[in-house]
Design goal:
By secondary structure, the protein is of the alpha/beta class. It is built from nine helices and ten strands. The protein has a single domain, classed as Spore Coat Polysaccharide Biosynthesis Protein SpsA, Chain A (Alpha-Beta Complex). 38% of the residues lie in helices and 15% in strands. Strand 2, helix 2 and strand 3 form a beta-alpha-beta unit. The longest helix is centred in the last third of the chain and has 38 residues.
């Protein structure tokens, strides 16, 4: 692989210096990093409390080494994660035709960049393949026929796409009009994980996220997301420090200790993977409910304090 053939990496950071350091150091340990263009999108502080952490991160970002090219984009105003990701991914897809995306709480395997670039090359012209996931849910020790499989749902903890696919993205609740009852059930993995509710909450203005709209656009087009049989990314952000993440261990996973072979496989969702994910979603549902309740209670407590203050 040469620098001209490697996809650029978009890294989105905010106010977690230690998480950011771990993310960048892990990525730099990939052999391909030395030829990879790294674009770091640093969001501005949303409040005065976040100013010191944002400043610390920006100071650290100026010391990054080990990549073919590093460009730091310092936002002048707070974009928020959804707007920042949409803006950054759109920019790099327009400039390079493809992109690899990371956030500031993702630790990658040394084999991550090779897998992502192999997949982006192999499926570049397959219209149904719209997303490449570098991570996988910890669904258990299953035996696959290959090192990769397809699912209907993407996963955004270390992922990649092409301009041809991202051009279909719209953060627009109008996509919900394309669903009927059967589609909603299918969208929710046979009602084992309530993705549909995320669309409803966005429509109501109660949350502001991007991922579920990306999934919806893939779903209505019968698109596919490629997954590794063993995860190449570990999310370290579920420690209560993230903007959208509570504290939980249900997503803990081990990273692959070897290079994965990315070969052409049939363009169809893996039935075995679909069933395994349904079992996993059912298992973690109580934990998710507790996490959502805890986070909601914290938000309401903060709101009452601000009103009473």
């Amino acid at each position: 692989m040469s620098a001209s053939t490697l996809a650029p990496v978009a890294l989105f950071v905010y106010n977690r210096p230690e998480h950011t350091r771990q993310t960048i150091e892990a990525l730099a340990s990939n052999p391909e990093a030395a030829l990879t263009r790294l674009y770091v999108f640093s969001d501005a502080a949303k409040s005065d409390d976040a100013v010191p952490a944002v400043a610390a991160i920006r100071s650290y970002l100026r010391t990054i080494e080990g990549f073919g090219h590093v460009e730091v984009v310092e936002r002048d105003v707070n974009f928020g994660l959804a707007r920042s990701i949409i803006d950054g991914v759109t920019r790099l897809c327009q400039d390079y035709g493809r992109v690899i995306v990371l956030e500031d709480d993702l630790v990658t395997s040394p084999y991550f960049l090779r897998y992502m670039n192999d997949a982006l090359d192999l499926y570049a012209d397959e219209e149904r393949v719209m997303h490449v996931s570098g991570s996988a849910y910890p669904i258990g020790p299953f035996s696959w026929h290959a090192d990769t499989y397809f699912l209907r749902v993407p996963l955004c903890w270390g992922w990649g796409t092409w301009g041809r696919a991202w051009d279909k993205f719209e953060k627009d609740p109008a996509v919900m009009q394309k669903f009927d009852t059967a589609m909603i059930k299918s969208f929710n993995f046979d009602d084992t994980y309530n993705y549909w509710q995320q669309l409803e909450l966005n429509q109501a203005g109660k949350i502001n996220t991007w991922f579920v709209f990306w999934y919806a656009q893939i779903f209505v087009r019968k698109g596919l997301a490629l997954f590794p049989a063993v995860s190449l990314v570990r999310n370290i952000g579920h420690d209560g420090t993230g903007v959208h993440c509570g504290e939980t261990t249900v997503y803990d996973m081990e990273l692959s200790t070897k290079r994965l072979s990315v070969l052409k496989i049939p363009l169809e969702e893996s039935t075995k993977a679909f069933v395994a994910h349904k079992k996993y979603f059912r298992k973690i549902s109580p934990s998710l409910a507790r996490r959502i309740f805890t986070r909601t209670r914290r938000l309401l407590s903060g709101l009452r304090a601000s009103i009473n203050g």
